Amino acid sequence: MNLVDAARCPYCARVRIALAEKGIEHEVTQVDLADRPEWLLELNPPYGRVPVLDGLPESEVIMELLEEIHPEPALLPADPAARARARLQVHRFDSNLGDDYYAYRRGDPNDLEAKLEALEVGQSLFADIAYVPWVLRARDMLGVTLPRRIADWLAVLERRPSVAAEVEIVRAL
Ligand SMILES: N[C@@H](CCC(=O)N[C@@H](CS)C(=O)NCC(=O)O)C(=O)O
User: Fold this and answer.
1) What's the CA angle centered on 17, arms 119 and 95, to 5 degrees?
2) CATH classification of 2-172 is 3.40.30.10, yes or no?
3) What ligand 1 atom has the least distance to the C-alpha of 50?
């Protein structure tokens, strides 16, 4: 498999973590988001966004594909209702965290603190992986003080090699 990747992209981080959790061997094509290659615009029109895995864009969809082709170790829970809840959690990423994260980063009015306080975490690895790249960046790049519950959750996740690798990537940005 080939992942079109950018170190600083948190959507790519979702895919990097999922690939690592499942131990899937793959190649990486790093792109410079400030100087996006023409071929990427053709591969994932119209904006040339990353990640793209073997031609497939959208991090949430890629995570689903990885779960299907590599069911073990599972990121989604076994119970269908719990699986649906995990997917719902990821589906609502923008309103649960993303919109306020980016508003905070731009210096616009935001509710990032309240969103972090309310964040549902620790229910499934699938949803945790989908959220952790932004929580990590909020802490390590934006200097946000995480609520105790979220800091504790992150500390446990960071013990996983897949997430520890992301901490290093963020440090090097
Ligand atoms: N919905 C996409 C979002 C991907 C995305 O926005 N990637 C950013 C980098 S972090 C990007 O390529 N942005 C370029 C642009 O929007 O022009 C996903 O989940 O993969």
Assistant:
1) 30
2) yes
3) 12
Take atom 17 of ligand 1 and give the residue whose Cα is closest.
47
Complete DSSP assignment for 10-78: HHHHHHHHHHHHHT---EEEE--GGG--HHHHHHSTTTT-S-EETTEE-HHHHHHHHHHH--SS-SS-S
With the most atoms of ligand 1 within 8 angstroms of its CB, the residue from 11, 35, 93 to mutate is 11
Does a cis peptide bond (omega within 30 degrees of 0) precede residue 161?
no
Cα-Cα-Cα-Cα dihedral sign, residues 98, 100, 105, 108: positive
Distance 79 CA to ligand 1 centre (A): 31
Instruction: Express each pLDDT in 122-135 by its tens digit.
Output: 999 999 999 999 99
Query: Which residue has 């793209």 as its token pair?
Result: 52
Residue 12 falls in the annotated catalytic set: no
Question: Roughly how many angstroms between the first and final C-alpha of the chain, as a whole number?
Answer: 25
Q: Is 39 in the pocket of ligand 1 (CB under 6 A)?
A: no
Q: What is the pTM of this model?
A: 0.97
**CA 117 to ligand 1 center in whole angstroms:** 25
Task: Name the stretches of the chain with pLDDT < 50.
Answer: none
